[in-house]
Amino acid sequence: MSVINAIYNANVYVNGVSQLGHAAEFKLPEFEIKQDDYTGLGMFAGVKLPSGVEAPEGEITWNAFYPDVARIINHPFKAVQLMVRGNLQTFDATGLAKEVPIVTTVSAWFSKNALGGYKPHEKAEFSSTYQAVEIRQVVDGRETLYFNALKNEYRVDGVDVLSQFHKNIGA
Hints:
This protein is mainly beta. It has two helices and 13 strands; from the N terminus they run βββββββαββββββα. The longest helix is centred in the middle third of the chain and has 7 residues, at 67-73.
């Protein structure tokens, strides 16, 4: 039986404090694998080989100015714990089959915070760009992704993707 998954809403937390209704949009980083072009004599086509992970970057658009959040995210030397909690719904031929939590936690340093743009008769929005140094995504209590750039850790579905690499380099 075919199923369809959907997430229609979420809540954002900054250092464990709910920001319910404060964020207009929360863009998690794109988890992008670096690719190195490889060609060799006798090869008809080149290939791209995985060589690492690009520095993950995300963005939050705040629907107003929140001084308590600004005090936290404007500090360039302190990591901020971000969390977005969503409701993952699964639909099948009978309707809504189940709902489970999808929770993504990010340790981040903010690199850009808009001070606002103002227009007559329009609500001001404020965007914040962050660099993620740690990402953990859990669906229904099961870790699907864990990445920590500073500890050189990378797990997919609980499996250490870098275990052989660590052995080979003596780490």
